[in-house]
Design brief:
This protein is mainly alpha-helical and 511 residues long. It is 74% helix and 4% strand. The chain has helices at 6-27, 36-63, 102-122, 130-149, 153-162, 164-174, 179-208, 213-218, 223-240, 249-256, 259-269, 271-284, 286-291, 293-312, 317-336, 341-372, 383-386, 388-401, 408-423, 425-450, 467-485, 488-508; strands at 72-80, 83-84, 90-91, 94-100.
Length: 511
């Protein structure tokens, strides 16, 4: 077991808190329904539980040795199948196995970092069935953490699929007018893609006799089998990322989800697709990954250019940022399948950076939506006169989203393009075109909403950011600038993980 079963405690602590919160509500329920006191207790509980989980992730960081190339804090309990050894141990089979490397550790910290901010942003805005809302987010946090810590394919699949349920509920109950349609579309798209992953999982277990990820990474699958398994994994991760053309569920889900739901969806859930490519596709199926490299590059460039053009034509602020996420995830897949150290490092950095920046942008949209109850770009204009603090923060994250040097957005984009340039100059050129388009649609959005003369009389009474909102944005601002100026904070942690991915791929290609 890892140090004090730290990972298990961290993973299941939010879910335990959610169940305790629901139990307390059931025991103290009255006929009056939701009250101010219940709302306060629910949000305070959610903040404290998620903040404690964040502290646990920092403890995991303290125990983590960046120079150690193996998985750390490993917890390994045999569940089913396998071979009994002379010493009484069991090898193979299905196991409850957890562990982290640099890549998964950073995604764990990103998850625990964003969740408390989601509760702060929801306080005062979500007032219906608040206890259930907080519980759904806490359970979702448990399932997201499980995805990044799982070292058994079955355990990974369970966490990966179960995460659909609380997000489906969050969108379907607390979303906008078309929330039911968006929730079902999100659920069906991602579930259908993951069915192929389930089939691949069974085939791999029958082939190798275990679902241990560490063992599967060193097993040499035949080239033909790699191709079919790669396609099955790709079907699942491409939808989750999402890649063009299976991205259509994302704008609907973002527009209908509550603000905090959009933050988690863009900040964490989309990263599961990129994480899956890095954890499974490259090290387990390197021949197939190299074979399909031109195909992935083509889809990535189309996603970057197409989503940028579509974003430019949007009239809804939230939908524009949703399409921006599709474009930015195209840089992630470019970097991953470049098969270069610099490209993969850039892809991981881009996932972390995008999680922070996109989360902040959705919160920025949420600020004006909570005041005016509309996200239509044409409704706004001249906000700088009434909301100077808001305009300043909006400008910072606009610049970060277009990749301004000195922000974290620049580092991920430049490294993924450098890696893809080594593999395919045309793909890098297409990505560079997307950077230009990104600047166009984001600066146009900023100009139309913040600058100019305020002509809409309904905006006369709009207020600038509250103290609570400034508190929410402060850690996001710090993270964006610090990572932009000191990217080595990320690279020092992910260096050995990237080296392992490259070593597994290089060791199996052509074998």
């Amino acid at each position: 077991m890892g140090e004090f079963a730290l990972l298990s405690f961290m993973i299941f602590f939010p879910a335990f808190g959610a169940l305790l919160l629901l139990l307390v509500k059931k025991l103290t329920a009255t006929t009056d329904g939701d009250s101010a006191s219940e709302e306060r207790i629910a949000y305070m509980s959610g903040i404290l539980i998620s903040a404690a989980t964040f502290v646990l992730s920092l403890i995991a960081l303290a125990f983590f040795n960046a120079d150690n190339s193996s998985f750390q804090l490993v917890e390994d309990i045999h569940w089913f199948g396998g071979t009994l050894q002379d010493d009484g141990s069991v090898t193979g089979g299905i196991r409850y196995k957890l562990g982290i490397d640099g890549m998964s550790l950073l995604l764990v910290i990103l998850t625990t970092f964003l969740t408390p901010l989601c509760f702060l942003a929801s306080w005062g805005n979500i007032k219906k069935r608040v206890t259930e809302y907080v519980a759904a987010f806490l359970i979702l946090e448990t399932l997201m953490l499980g995805v990044f810590c799982a070292l058994d394919l079955v355990v990974f699949y369970v966490f990966f699929e179960a995460g659909l349920i609380p997000m489906f509920i969050i969108i379907g109950i607390w979303g906008g007018a078309e929330r039911v349609y968006a929730a079902f579309k999100f659920f069906l798209y991602t579930l259908l893609g993951s069915l192929f992953l389930l089939v691949a999982l069974i085939v791999m277990f029958l082939q190798v006799g275990t679902t241990d990820i560490e063992v599967l990474q060193t097993y040499e699958f035949s080239r033909n089998l790699q191709i079919w398994l790669w396609l099955a994994f790709f079907a699942s991760f491409a939808v989750k990322l999402p890649m063009w053309p299976v991205h259509t569920w994302l704008p609907d889900a973002h527009v209908q989800a509550p603000t905090a739901g959009s933050v988690i969806l863009a900040g964490v859930l989309l990263k599961m697709g990129g994480y899956g490519f890095l954890r499974f596709s490259l090290p387990m199926f390197p021949d197939a990954s190299l074979f399909f490299q031109p195909f992935v590059f083509a889809l990535s460039v189309i996603a970057i250019v197409y989503a940028s053009l579509v974003a430019f034509r949007q009239t809804d602020m939230k939908k524009l940022i949703a399409y921006s996420s599709v474009a930015h995830m195209g840089f992630v897949t470019l970097g991953i399948f470049s098969f270069t150290d610099i490209g993969i490092q850039g892809a991981i950095f881009q996932m972390i950076s995008h999680g922070v920046i996109s989360g902040a942008l959705f919160l920025i949209v949420g600020v004006v939506y909570d005041r005016m109850h509309t996200r239509e770009i044409a409704f706004y204009g001249g906000l700088v006169g009434k909301m100077p603090i808001y305009a300043t923060i909006f400008m910072l994250f606009t610049m970060a989203n277009v990749g301004l040097p000195g922000t974290s957005g620049f580092v991920g984009e430049i490294l993924t393009m450098a890696g893809s340039f080594q593999a395919n100059t045309l793909a890098a050129a297409g990505a560079a075109l997307g950077v230009i388009f990104s600047a166009i649609y984001m600066l146009t959005l900023y100009r139309r909403t913040v600058f100019g003369v305020m002509t809409n009389e309904k905006l006369d009474g709009i207020k600038d950011l509250t103290r609570n909102e400034i508190i929410i944005f402060t850690p996001l601002i710090i993270a964006t600038i610090v990572l932009g100026v000191f990217p080595s904070l990320i690279f020092d942690i992910t260096e050995t993980s990237v080296a392992n991915i490259m070593a597994f791929a290089a060791g199996q290609i052509g074998s």
